[in-house]
Amino acid sequence: MTESELNVHKEIEMRGAGFLAIWSDVEQQSLTDYRHWLTREHTTERVTMKGFLAVRVFRADRSDLNRFFILYELQAPEVLDGPAYLARLNAPTPWSQRIMPQLGNFVRGGGVMTARAGRGEGATIAALRIEHVPEAPQALADALVALDGIAAVQVGVTDQARTSVPTVEKGMRQQEGFFAGLLIIEALDEAALRGALRKAAEIAPQSVPGGEAEVYRGMFALDARIADSG
Questions:
Q1: Cα torsion for 34, 37, 43, 48, to the nearest 10°?
Q2: pLDDT digits (tens, 9 = 90+) for 121-140
Q3: Are 61 and 214 in contact (CB under 8 A)?
Q4: Cα 98 to the chain's mean position, in Å?
């Protein structure tokens, strides 16, 4: 194992090896109810479960719709089909039962973070669903985080079997998209993010298509240690 791979292994052990990523759209008339549900009930419910370490919520930087990206950090991908999480998914709260059917363009997937680079977190991010995971994900992450204004990069691989377990909550949504992998680039500002996206397309063109990617801004975060203390 190289020094770089050893550092990544240690970081994943410290931060949690698994992830759960969710995108959805919310109609304007439901926005206040959704935000209150998300920040006052749902995320607390999740991160106080065994295996959930933290959550971060982002909103797409666009004026034509309300699109959100939620990233949960998990201790391991096994949490996704573990008994604690499945029990919650099969017993949604009344508030969740009201919100879930309203979520449009819903995409959900979880798995393992195979590569991480950088320190800290950026508030301006790109969260790309990718159909071809890079052959050398750590090399890609290392190259991107070396760019000016890039705080962190993560590459994940989705576990379709663990993500696709039928549950009551899943049945409340009309459709649920799937993706093979996840590339998250976290930047200090949009200019730096755009530069990193261009570089990513050069390094891994099969994984990162060219063109404009959606920019997301940090909106809310909750760590399990804070949630448990409440």
A1: -170
A2: 999 999 999 999 999 999 99
A3: yes
A4: 23
